[in-house]
Amino acid sequence: MQIKSICCIGAGYVGGPTMAVIAKQCPEIQVTVVDTNHARINDWNDDDLNNLPIFEPGLAEIVTEVRGKNLHFSTEVDKAIDEAEMVFISVNTPTKTYGKGKGMAADLKYIELCARQIGRVAKSDKIVIEKSTLPVRTASAIKSILDNTGNGVQFQILSNPEFLAEGTAIQDLLHPDRVLIGGNTSTKEGEQAMQALVEIYENWVPKEKILTTNVWSSELSKLTANAFLAQRVSSINAMSEICEKTGADVQEVSKAIGMDSRIGPKFLNASVGFGGSCFQKDILNLVYIAKSYGLNEVADYWEQVIIMNDHQKDRFSDNIVSTLYNTVSGKKIGFLGWAFKKNTNDTRESAAIKVADNLLNEQAYIAVYDPKVKAEQIYKDLEYIGSRSLEENKKYLEVFDNPYEAMKDTHGIAILTEWDEFKEYDWEKVYQQMKKPAFLFDGRGILNKKEIENIGFVYYNIGLGN
Ligand code: UDX
Ligand code: ADP
């Protein structure tokens, strides 16, 4: 079965870049990305590529190349579903904010809506692919909805979890470590559907990197990968606190253990805490699944990864307060970075949000600069936490387009995101414009301690004792 038309529901951080790369690598396939959010689709169609709704290195170039040829962005969801042989579901699955599983389970509301819509619209057989991170066994829920609401056409459900990391999405998609395709391996139709998707990826991914598994393994592998990665960050962050007390240097420890080929060097950068749309959500999902099977020890084990991460964020803001003579009330603190990591404008679960909230509770004034995050998003993030009114947030937190303006007259500066440009700043100039003593809290360990201290700063780096 050779696929000629694909529809992707959800034009977000996953759907957008993934479909752009599929369209680029498979010129013979028509790819339509749909979303109910009109503003978002307009931005995807904007001639000015600076207005694309998401920032991702390399994305704008691909969009220029294929948009209007075989990549289309539209709000006509029904039409796109109807015309496609293959439908990807890439809608968001936030953590539930109400009812059973509140704060832990994934909210599958949007997925269910999609499934019902596909069931209602489809007049021909379709392969439906879950792309969003989903808790195990979601595919069976999708299948049940489709089979019971459909017009008698056949649906094959596949799980094809996304392993792209934001900031490197295009490279991750072009050169994936592996592509995972879960399906119904026990029927001929299931096998054929998997093969159809395998053939799409084979246009650019080496055969041996495309793994086919049963659906549940595929779904659980996604949660497992993120849980293991998050666990490494929490583990090294736990060590960072010991380092600060003992005089060890966490970056030296990371390097030393990373050279052990059994451990490897990646995901060992101590930080102010991990963020992003996946890590926390996926672990909470895992915890919820474990609890629902009565596996309390398993649940506690994974929950600790989150507890450690929350502690790391609080510890960072506590340190700012205690270092600034136990009060930040009325003091201006500069924030460099708001995104959850560099090279993305995504702020979901970013450590900066919690650190800012803690400092605002202490009545600090915060001046934020982030190269890609808009002021509107920053206020939205704080509003979501809900500690203060928008009015109050606007009074105590200001967003700047110019980093030097943001850092002027501050008592202290906190680095929350590891944007490369922060390393290139004229730190001498920054120092001259600050109140003295000038404190610098490097939550990402990106500056050179010696150089910074030589300028005159009092420098605090995660995982480095004084
Ligand atoms: C993650 C997974 O990597 C990806 O495979 C999955 O599909 C989606 O979730 P992403 O959330 O985009 O990707 O970012 P990732 O690079 O994994 O970083 C997550 C967080 O951990 C960031 O806040 C990052 O700054 C932090 N981190 C990462 C550290 O603090 N230290 C590290 O060493 C690595
Ligand atoms: P992710 O990081 O998983 O891509 P995003 O929030 O960036 O998450 O993107 C998900 C997109 O899915 C949003 O733009 C949202 O408007 C869209 N979406 C959610 N539900 C539906 C639906 N039923 N039909 C179409 N689009 C939807």
Model description:
A six-stranded parallel beta sheet has the order 3-2-1-4-5-6, with helices on both faces. Strands 11-10-9-12-13-14 form a six-stranded parallel beta sheet, with helices on both faces. Strands 7-8 form a two-stranded parallel ribbon. The protein has 18 helices and 14 strands. The longest helix has 32 residues, at 215-246. The protein is α/β, with parallel strands linked by helices and 466 residues long. The chain is globular. Helices cover 45% and strands 14% of the residues. Helix 13 packs across helix 14 (375-385). Strand 13 (439-442), helix 18 and strand 14 (458-461) form a beta-alpha-beta unit. The site of uridine-5'-diphosphate-xylopyranose (UDX) has 19 residues, from helix 9. Adenosine-5'-diphosphate (ADP) binds at residues 9-15, 34-37, 40, 77, 90-92, 110, 113-114, 132, 277.
Q: Spans with pLDDT under 50 lasting ≥5 residues? A: none
**What global shape is seen?**
globular
User: What would you call the structural class?
Assistant: alpha/beta
Largest sheet, described in full?
6 strands, parallel
How many runs of DSSP E, i.e. beta strands? 14
List the helices and strands and how they pair.
Blueprint: E1 5-9, H1 15-25, E2 30-34, H2 38-44, H3 59-66, E3 71-74, H4 77-83, E4 86-89, H5 109-121, E5 126-130, H6 138-149, E6 155-159, H7 169-174, E7 179-183, H8 188-201, E8 210-214, H9 215-246, H10 250-258, H11 279-292, H12 296-323, E9 332-336, H13 351-361, E10 365-369, H14 375-385, H15 390-396, E11 397-399, H16 403-407, E12 412-415, H17 427-432, E13 439-442, H18 449-455, E14 458-461
Parallel strand pairs: 1-2, 1-4, 2-3, 4-5, 5-6, 7-8, 9-10, 9-12, 10-11, 12-13, 13-14
Helix pairs in contact: 1-3, 5-6, 9-11, 9-12, 11-12, 12-13, 13-14
Bound molecules: uridine-5'-diphosphate-xylopyranose and adenosine-5'-diphosphate.
Uridine-5'-diphosphate-xylopyranose (UDX) is lined by residues 162-166, 226, 229, 233, 267-269, 271, 274-276, 278-279, 340-341.
